[in-house]
Design brief:
alpha/beta
Amino acid sequence: MTSANSPVPIILCGAKISLGQESANFMNPEFEVIHFCVSVDAACAEIPPLLLGEEPKPAEGNEVGTHNYSTLPKAVLFGRTYTNDKLQAVLDACKGKGEISWVIPGEAADKNEVIGPGHATKVATNMKTVLTELVNTGKMGQEGHFKYSF
């Protein structure tokens, strides 16, 4: 955590606002989703200013996250729709803007799973496990790629 009582500020990237909202709600109270990017283009445009302590211009209709930009984000989390080429595009856009932990999709726990009710909470649980480990090991906010299973 950023202080004894403050949640860790994070950015969440996914393909659907509804899943982003469900995931953001689940991250509380330990982690605060301050911003949600709903596409690769949005992530490439909105994350670099956040890393520099500037307010981004979020996509219209995207109300996910607190939009509390008073503290620099410590991690960026990506949903499973972010393939390696999409991840690389975001990493390239953010290069040299600041140090942050990148929490990226790893292997699917069940490759045949159908996305349905409860999926966002399941994925958020796995993401939260990785974030908690980063906090507990003192690696939160350090540059690096950390994988979660989905």
